[in-house]
Specification:
Chain lengths: 330, 228
């Protein structure tokens, strides 16, 4: 049985990564400006206005779209960067913006009604009622669903909500209600919601202890890796903590989402697009992951089940998981 | 002092680097600075992206070479200097990146993903992570071609330098394969013993699992009897 060919939405943190994604078969590339208006505000990453213009000029003739993530939350007295980001996105001709804040959505809907609006995963809208509200009031046409839903839940939303749905298929796992998680703020005073960065690099230290390495975030030790033990991102949700004398991962293991075998189910559930996480990753990752996912999407469209091969070396902890889509641990 | 507790990989660089111990520092320092100058001429966007980090020092430490490099970022062309393993670092670096020479050059040229190298523990990073990330991201965007940069650093003699470099790289590849073969020959007996032990441990684990399962069964049955 053939299924709809899902749109492959791929990350880019630099112009070189964008070209790698387009060349590897991305239907769409999403990116952010080099400031606090997006949730991957890492040092040395992201696009200037001029670079975005060049990115669109590279992507469009090759049949790829460009979405701009404006998905952090403005603070009172400092809304300027978000307004400017929306205005520039409209002026430069991006295909859509990915927004989480209702104020920014409202501003866009009023000032630039023709600019396509997607609801970011950062809005943490996880049921049809919420999506209907966003659609009715701010004219969103698509929502990126949080990584905490099972496939049946995704199907319910895709069937009932008046908007397209986009789900994560590969990359870093966020096990929290995104946009509402304060773990990074608790440890460092900065979070993706406000400063656009989870576990900011300025607050991360790796301290060698002989063959072991201690991972510190702010004033907290959040993990210790033995010699040769695969490691992951230095986030509190993937920290290893001692409870009742036993050290374990209380929230989530260091592991990457790899939902390739679930693509046929997601397509049958009515999902419109698949998202790859990883704007902070290098262009070698982008080329390899986009290529593998392109193959998986084509396989699923032809009625076959994609396999999880060839990407373990790029994953956190060296392994992949079906994540919450299966949710068999509850 | 530098921390060299983690052992280097057995690689061609480890063997080929031995003569570097005999090389006086000035010619190496001159060559490194020429390379840094050529890099900035070819990739002006990189130092531009790093101006916020002017004055910071980064130790680049190829674990299989007898020298390490101190990179000092400035408003324009960075300064680069070599330090020997047994020497004091002139100024405490803000951050350090340690890994095999092959991994570091692949990272520089964007052929591998830095996070993946880090997850697999092929890279050891200490100190200011923001500095390391900013440099990694700027380099990843630059599409660096090390062969072209080294050639360029020789000015008018670039074609000759590139030809010499190609010949050296060819020789290095053969040397690396030879060293790898030698390594496998040396460790073959130990490896065989380790494989036998792993297989034995796996068997014991399976037995322990089976014994635990057997022990649980009567307990469950007892529970059922209590309830009824």
């Amino acid at each position: 049985m053939s299924l709809p060919r899902l749109e492959l939405v791929c990350p880019a943190g630099t112009p070189a990564a964008l070209e790698a994604a387009v060349d590897a078969g991305a239907d769409t590339v999403y990116l952010g400006f080099r400031d606090c208006t997006n949730a991957r505000n890492f040092p040395g990453l992201n696009f200037s206005r001029k670079e975005l213009e060049a990115a669109i000029a590279y992507a469009h003739p090759r049949g790829s779209k460009v979405y701009l993530a404006i998905n952090s939350f403005p603070q009172a007295g400092n809304e300027g960067p978000w307004r400017q980001a929306v205005d520039d996105a409209a002026g430069l001709g991006v295909d859509a913006i990915i927004v989480s804040d209702i104020g920014v959505l409202d501003y866009t809907a009023r000032r630039h009604p023709d600019l396509r609006r997607h609801l970011s995963v950062q809005a943490s809208a996880a049921h049809p009622l919420a999506l209907a509200y966003y659609h009715r009031n701010f004219g969103i046409t698509r929502a990126v669903l949080p990584r905490v839903l099972t496939v049946p839940q995704v199907k319910e939303i895709a069937t009932e909500a008046p908007v397209e749905t986009e789900v994560f298929v590969y990359g870093g796992m966020c096990p929290m209600a995104e946009g509402r998680c304060a773990l990074s703020s608790y440890a460092t005073g900065r979070s993706p919601n406000t400063a656009g960065v989870c576990s900011p690099a300025s607050h991360v230290r790796y301290v060698p202890e002989g063959e072991r390495v201690q991972v510190r975030l702010g004033d907290f030790t959040i993990n210790r890796f033995e010699s040769g033990e695969p490691s992951g991102y230095p986030t509190l949700c993937k920290g290893r903590f001692k409870a009742r004398g036993h050290a374990s991962y209380l929230f989530e293991d260091p592991v990457s989402l790899d939902a390739r075998p679930l693509i046929p189910e997601l397509a049958a559930a009515g999902v419109k697009a698949l998202k790859i996480e990883g704007r902070q990753r290098g262009r070698a990752y982008i080329a390899q992951v986009v290529g593998a996912l392109r193959e998986a999407v084509e396989k699923a469209a032809a009625g076959r089940t994609p396999e999880t091969t060839s990407l373990a070396a790029l994953s956190e902890g060296g392994r992949g998981t079906g994540g919450a889509y299966r949710k068999d641990w509850r | 002092m530098l921390d060299f507790r983690s052992p280097p990989p057995l690689s061609g660089a480890l063997v080929a680097g031995l003569p570097l111990r005999l090389l006086p520092t000035p010619p190496l320092a001159w060559f490194l600075q020429q390379t840094a100058d050529a890099f900035c001429r070819l990739h002006p966007g990189v130092p531009e992206r790093l101006t916020d980090y002017a004055g910071r020092h980064l130790l680049l430490d190829p674990s299989d070479l007898p020298v390490a490099f101190i990179l000092t970022l400035t408003d324009s062309t960075p300064r680069i200097a070599a330090v020997g393993q047994d020497r004091q670092v002139p100024e405490a670096p803000d951050a350090s990146v340690r890994g095999a020479l092959a991994d570091l050059t692949a990272l520089l040229e964007g052929e591998v993903d830095g996070d993946a190298l880090f997850f697999s523990r092929h890279l050891q990073i200490t100190g200011d992570m923001e500095l390391v990330l900013a440099l990694r991201n700027a380099l990843d965007d630059a599409r660096v071609d090390l062969r072209r940069i080294i050639g360029e650093s020789f000015g008018h003699a670039a074609p000759l330098a590139r030809a010499a470099l190609d010949a050296a790289l060819g020789g290095y590849t053969r040397l690396d394969r030879g060293v790898s073969l030698l390594g496998r020959a040396v460790t073959a007996v130990t490896q065989e013993r380790l494989d036998r032990q792993s297989s034995e441990i796996e068997k014991l684990r399976a037995e322990v699992r089976e014994l635990r399962t057997q022990r649980r069964r009567p307990a469950t049955q007892r529970q059922r009897e209590d309830i009824s």
